[in-house]
């Protein structure tokens, strides 16, 4: 029987089958190799990309801060400052970064974001502002009695966490020292400029006080914020009966400051609106009305008018004022004033509103004040934020007048 020599024997693969198998094997090998290379490349590239991300950082924006040299203690009185205060450098509150913006709207949005993050307090705090639960800081002092010299020694050491009383977001604190009930004779520390954690380290001697009289007195310390242009603002007070202190040796105390008793009476409220126009670079202040103003005259009434100051970096720029309302504790003013305020200067701008009592025969009395900026009290900051957040719209709010 004739057999084809190229014919496959039973059970053996043909040449075509072998060729196809070889091609498939080579293709699979190439595919696996390419896949491996691809994963290797991805791992290498991914690792390099990850490393590049890890090297990205942000610059450190921290700054060192210091204080200004204090004013010298006024001459007179039975006080001796036994510890010199070291020289100090200015506390620069104006060292604040400002960045150029591509448009007015960008800057307004940026300011709104900053104020939301940086402003002290909240709407809930506003409802409680001015009440006794407010943190007024604390003061450290020492007191002792020298029996041989009949001298009471009081050392004012330092204070911590004082509230900001100035429109610049800080205070210029000093301490008055009394031995109550005597209010005529007082001693004072130096003023610490722009400092919410001042160190005084000043010693005062009350000489010629018999011990029997000393224990009948109350040591009264009043911390105030020094103001060049108007009366000093009270920050807080501490009183300690000396009959409850072991005066045989110097005793050191930390005491929380309490609201000053002389400023506890209500001074009334003022309704005003703010309107900021970023395209016109202007702020319009509308003094609307006041209610329950404090009576400053003997007849149980007042003659109120309102002064509006535009401040920039602690400097007075421009002043406006309303008409005087005779014998009226609930006056209606409805007077508007426009101030030019470039957008880039908003961070350093403060509007100071003072309600005054007009007096023909003597100096006009201050009924109360309001400081409006992004770094004032909680209620004032809320009003300022609302003005920025709603440009070209008048935003009205009631404010409690403060001493």
TrEMBL record:
Q: In which domain of life is the source organism classified?
A: Eukaryota
Report residue spans for region: Disordered. 53-106
Membrane-spanning regions, if any?
Answer: 20-41
Q: Which GO terms describe its molecular function?
A: calcium ion binding; calcium-dependent phospholipid binding; calmodulin binding; clathrin binding; phosphatidylserine binding; SNARE binding
Membrane topology type, per the record? Single-pass membrane protein
Q: Where is the composition biased (Polar residues)?
A: 80-89
What region holds the C2 domain?
Answer: 135-255, 266-399
Q: Name one Pfam family in it.
A: C2
Query: Which stretches does UniProt call biased (Basic and acidic residues)?
Result: 90-100
Q: What is this protein called?
A: Synaptotagmin-7
Species of origin reads: Myotis myotis (Greater mouse-eared bat)
């Amino acid at each position: 029987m004739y057999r084809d020599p190229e014919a496959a024997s039973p059970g053996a693969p043909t040449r075509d089958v072998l060729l196809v198998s070889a091609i498939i094997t080579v293709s699979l090998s190439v595919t696996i190799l390419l896949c491996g290379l691809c994963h290797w490349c991805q791992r290498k590239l991914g690792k390099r990309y990850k490393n590049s991300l890890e090297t990205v950082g942000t610059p450190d924006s921290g700054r060192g801060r210091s204080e200004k040299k204090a004013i010298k203690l006024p001459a007179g009185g039975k006080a001796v400052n036994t510890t010199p205060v070291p020289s100090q450098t200015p506390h620069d509150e104006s060292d604040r970064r400002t960045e150029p913006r591509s448009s007015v709207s960008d800057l307004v949005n940026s300011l709104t974001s900053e104020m939301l993050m940086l402003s002290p307090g909240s709407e809930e705090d506003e409802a409680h502002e001015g009440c006794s639960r407010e943190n007024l800081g604390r003061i450290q002092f020492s007191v002792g009695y020298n029996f041989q010299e009949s001298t009471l020694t009081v050392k004012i050491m330092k204070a911590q966490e004082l509230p900001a009383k100035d429109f610049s977001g800080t205070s210029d604190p000093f301490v008055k020292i009394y031995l109550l009930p005597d209010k005529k004779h007082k001693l004072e520390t130096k003023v610490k400029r722009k400092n919410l954690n001042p160190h005084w380290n000043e010693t005062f001697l009350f000489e010629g006080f018999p011990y029997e009289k000393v224990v009948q007195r109350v040591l009264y310390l009043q911390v105030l914020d020094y103001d060049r242009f108007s009366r000093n603002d009270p920050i807080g007070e501490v009183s300690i009966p000396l009959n409850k202190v072991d005066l045989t040796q110097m005793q050191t105390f930390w005491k929380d400051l309490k609201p000053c008793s002389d400023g506890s009476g209500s001074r009334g409220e003022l309704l005003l609106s703010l309107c900021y126009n970023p395209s016109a670079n202007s702020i319009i202040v509308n003094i609307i009305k006041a209610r329950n103003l404090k009576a400053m005259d003997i007849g149980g009434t007042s003659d109120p008018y309102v002064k509006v100051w535009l401040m920039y970096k602690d400097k007075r720029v421009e002043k406006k004022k309303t008409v005087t309302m005779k014998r009226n504790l609930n006056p209606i003013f409805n007077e508007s004033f426009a101030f030019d305020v470039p957008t880039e200067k908003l961070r350093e701008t403060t509007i100071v509103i003072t309600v005054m009592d007009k007096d023909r025969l003597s100096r006009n009395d201050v009924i109360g004040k309001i400081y409006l900026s992004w770094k004032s009290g909680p209620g004032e900051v809320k009003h300022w934020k609302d003005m920025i957040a709603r440009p070209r719209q008048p935003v009205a709010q009631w404010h409690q007048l403060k001493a």
